[in-house]
Amino acid sequence: MKKFIHFKIPKIHAKSAKIGINSKAPSTWESGFSRVISGLLSSIVLLVMLLLFMAITIFPGSTEGSYEPGAPATVTTESAEPAKTVSSGDYPLTVEDDLGNDVFLKSKPVRIASGTLMTDEILLSLVDHKRLIAVTKLSEDPGISNVAGEVAGIPNKITLNVELIISISPDIVFLASWSDASKVKQLRDAGLAVFQLKSPLTIDEVEASIKKIARVVGEREKGDQIVSWMEGKLDAVHKRIASIPETNRLKVMDYGTWGSSFGAGSSWDDIVKHAGLINAVASLKADQWGNVPISKEKLVEIDPDILILPAWVWGDPTGADKFFKKIVTDPSLATVKAVKNSRVYRIPEKYKASTSQYIVYAVEELAKLAYPDKFVKK
User: Fold this and answer.
1) What is the pLDDT of residues 238-248, one digit of tens each?
2) What's the rounded mean pLDDT across residues 167-184?
3) How far apart are CA 199 and CA 192, in angstroms?
4) 117 and 139 Cβ atoms separated by less than 8 Å
5) First to last CA, the chain
6) Contact at 8 Å (CB) between 309 and 346?
7) In this structure, which of 95, 276, 281, 336 has its CB flanked by the most CB atoms within 10 Å?
8) Which of 90, 290, 103 is nearest to 196 (CA)?
9) Which residues on adjacent β-strands are paired with residue 135?
10) Is 0.90 topped by the overall pTM?
11) What is the rounded distance in angstroms from the CA atom of residue 137 to the CA atom of residue 161?
12) Considering the chain, what is the average pLDDT of its residues?
């Protein structure tokens, strides 16, 4: 609790006296009056100084990049106009991207273009939004994007359109490792700094990507804050489920509209581990992206305790609802424990498919669905 400083304004006593207009020297009354005025002015100055001190102490101004626990760090401070350059001791800077390319930055990037949903979400929590001159079109879709409500003021919603990206003159462009190599070359040939990132497949890799991006844009401290927030969310889940014996951990499986599940080596597999469950298809052979083809017959054979279905389907606003109904009403799946016990669920796709800091919400959601008794508020 802040202590308030109290002081007394001196009481002023003045004796009345007649004054002659043509007096050559100050009368006793004049001298007393001067002292009164002087005292009043001193008191007023002291009072103003005290009020200013209290205003600064009680109502501190927000600092750019301040972090409020409980949600991913989002910078809300905005300058009227971003500076032409931002001074920083880290620049000039040469950094290596995930494909081994050296990316040179003469100064701290002010005009930033994001070409992946992952970097959209991370950058919106790292930098003043006015430094972002482009984000992906996908960022506007609330079904898959965690920042749909934050991108309205960003001037450009892009795909990998070379001409458009060159025309907006970004200081740096963030793209995926799998972005069209010929278009990436065109951007570099035009003199643009392009930083490519691989899709993280574990939460540790997500955190490493956040720190890497934070370094590139000159916001290391904010990057560390986001990672600390993530670790705090995970620790809270881990404490809740710590008492569940390994033998009592539930078996979960996700199942997509294309008839496959995510196995070992996928980000989903890491979500499952952190949530205290067992990935029902972890032992099955997966492709390079962690996908395991699963027929309905195989699904019956695996017989998971919990089944997670898509909450969003690309290009089909009603696709998730239709698929859910199809699965829970399919007679051939009626004997599957998850179906029989009404434990078929959906987790918001913007969490489940996230490769940014928001992935920790998928861990939290899955753990709550699997072990609701562990999350009852006492």
Assistant:
1) 999 999 999 99
2) 97
3) 22
4) yes
5) 28
6) yes
7) 281
8) 103
9) 157
10) no
11) 12
12) 83
Higher pLDDT among residues 47 and 162, named by residue: 162
Decide: 357 and 206 in contact? Cβ < 8 Å.
yes
Is residue 29 pLDDT above 60, yes or no?
no
Placement of tokens 């927030």 in the chain:
229
pLDDT in tens, 308-353: 999 999 999 999 999 999 999 999 999 999 999 999 999 999 999 9
CB 236 within 8 A of CB 361: no
Rounded CA separation 343/362 (Å): 17
pLDDT in tens, 139-149: 999 999 999 99
CA atoms within 13 Å, Cβ hemisphere of 124 = 28
CB 44 within 8 A of CB 70: no
Confidence of residue 89 (pLDDT cuts 50, 70, 90): low
**Structural domains in the chain plus CATH codes:** 93-230 (3.40.50.1980), 244-375 (3.40.50.1980)
Burial class of residue 39 (count of CB atoms within 10 Å of its CB; 0-12, 13-18, 19+): middle
Torsion angle, alpha carbons of 75, 80, 86, 87, to 10: -100
Distance CA 249, CA 140 (A): 37
Position 288 confidence tier, pLDDT thresholds 50, 70, 90? confident
CB atoms within 10 A of CB 218: 23
How big is the chain, counted in residues? Answer: 378
Place of tokens 């997500």: 206
Counting other chains too, the contacts that 132-137 makes at CB distance below 8 Å and 24 or more residues apart are 133/168, 133/170, 134/158, 134/165, 134/168, 134/170
3-state secondary structure of 67: coil
Instruction: Name the E strands within the chain.
Output: 93-96, 102-105, 112-114, 132-136, 156-158, 172-176, 194-197, 251-254, 260-262, 278-279, 291-293, 306-309, 344-346
Cα R_g (the chain), whole angstroms = 31
Q: Report residue 224 as tokens.
A: 């560390």
For residue 314, what are the contacts with CB-CB under 8 A and spacing of at least 6?
Answer: none
Do 209 and 118 contact (CB within 8 A), yes or no? Answer: yes
Within 10 angstroms of residue 172's Cβ, the number of other Cβ atoms is 19
